[in-house]
Design goal:
The chain is mostly helical and 107 residues long. The chain is 91% helix and 0% strand.
Length: 107
């Protein structure tokens, strides 16, 4: 602010007006600062929540990947067992046919 000599009634009246205007500007600036601080705190909370969700998704992904690996192992075991059973059934069917064919042939 400029230093002005106070002379007469006009100068004395302008000082309180300047103080009032400065006070209003200060109050508006403080209000704007408070609003900005609230917005920043909200943004920080949102960011923390997002980080938590991302971490939870990562944990879910890891768990699902482990479950998928386990399912693939079980699936391969079942396929192997299925092939073995099919081979044994084919062998048993072959043996039964051989016995039946032998009984049908005249001796």
């Amino acid at each position: 602010m400029k230093d002005r000599p106070v002379s007469g009634s006009l100068g004395a009246e302008s000082i309180p007006a300047e103080i009032g205007a400065a006070t209003r500007r200060l109050a508006a600036a403080l209000e704007a600062l408070e609003s900005a601080a609230e917005r920043r705190a909200e943004a920080d909370r949102d960011e923390d929540e997002l980080a938590s969700r991302i971490q939870a998704l990562g944990a879910d992904r890891s768990r699902l990947a482990d479950e998928l690996d386990g399912s693939l192992v079980r699936s391969r075991r079942l396929e192997r067992a299925n092939r073995e059973i099919a081979q044994r059934l084919d062998a048993a069917i072959g043996s039964i046919r051989a016995v039946l064919d032998a009984e049908e042939e005249p001796s």
